[in-house]
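Protocol step 4 of 5: obtain the predicted structure for the target chain.
Materials: sequence only (see below). No template structures provided, no constraints applied. The aim of this step is simply to have a reference model before the mutagenesis design in step 5. Sequence pasted as it appears in the construct record:
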Amino acid sequence: PTQSTRALEAIIRDLMETRDGSTYFAERVWGVSLRYDSGGSHPLAGRSVPDFKLADGTKVGTLLRAGKGLFLDFDALASLEALTSHWRERVTYVAGDVRDRLGLSAVLV
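Step 4 output (structure tokens):
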């Protein structure tokens, strides 16, 4: 390594030792900060789903481990459950409230 690359390594190491720096690098590496243009106007459209925590303590990340789509219905509406019934083999329907809905009543992942 050259003197320049060692200096750059030291700067990056210093940045990663801060909360903002480590968050920045983690988001970039894991793609969390990416936004795909899906044409939606909501700030979450085209982004990774937040790891919402349901009232029973279950988190979205746990629900996604099944490898299927996920429909979260924060209002537990019978009409939305019926809508997803045709897709049960591919999409898991979960009704339950979360602390911070981020202005949403339902989420399809």
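Step 4 remarks: The chain is about 35% helix and 10% strand. The chain has a mean pLDDT of 87.
Proceed to step 5.
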